[in-house]
Amino acid sequence: MTGPQKASAASYRLVWKGPSGTVRLSESAYAAYDQVIQGTDEISMKRKAHLERYFREFCENVHFYQRLSDEKFKKEQNFPDGKGGKVAIWAFKSWQWRLYGTIMHVAASRCFVGTAVDAAKKRNKADRKLMKAAADELAALAEYKPEPA
User: Which range is most confident: 2-11, 50-59, 76-85?
Assistant: First the structure.
């Protein structure tokens, strides 16, 4: 007897692919991202240009962390996964817009898996409740491997 099948990050939307990695988004994160990339106002166009550049850097460079500063892509915090490990939450950042997720191996590739968006960030501090929700969703994925506590 087997338990229920876990959701897979491989079923998430593939939004960027390069030789060193991919970016995948849950449906809710993709909806918020799609709103940005379809927007024609000045802020949306700036966000789109920045996010595309940041995704390209992540996906095309093994050493992405040397190319993306904390103002662009930052490890925010670790959250307990309820299984004795921790989920590291990272954020792509652009013009008061944040995409929260983690880095994991999906379909034989290093992948940023985004599950939550803060589309109108007003404070300098990251939204802890939003990051915790992202961590919970990420810990439930079949590809999830915890960081040691």
Answer: 50-59
What is the DSSP-derived secondary structure letter of residue 94? Answer: -
Q: Where are the alpha helices (DSSP H) in the chain?
A: 27-38, 42-60, 64-67, 128-139
| Residue 149, both tokens | 């506590």
Name which of 67, 77, 69 is nearest 93 in CA terms.
69
pTM attached to this predicted model: 0.93
Q: What is the DSSP letter of 5?
A: P
d(CA 57, CA 106): 18
CB 141 within 8 A of CB 7: yes
User: How much of the chain, in percent, has pLDDT values that exceed 70?
Assistant: 93
Cβ contact 143:9 at 8 Å = yes
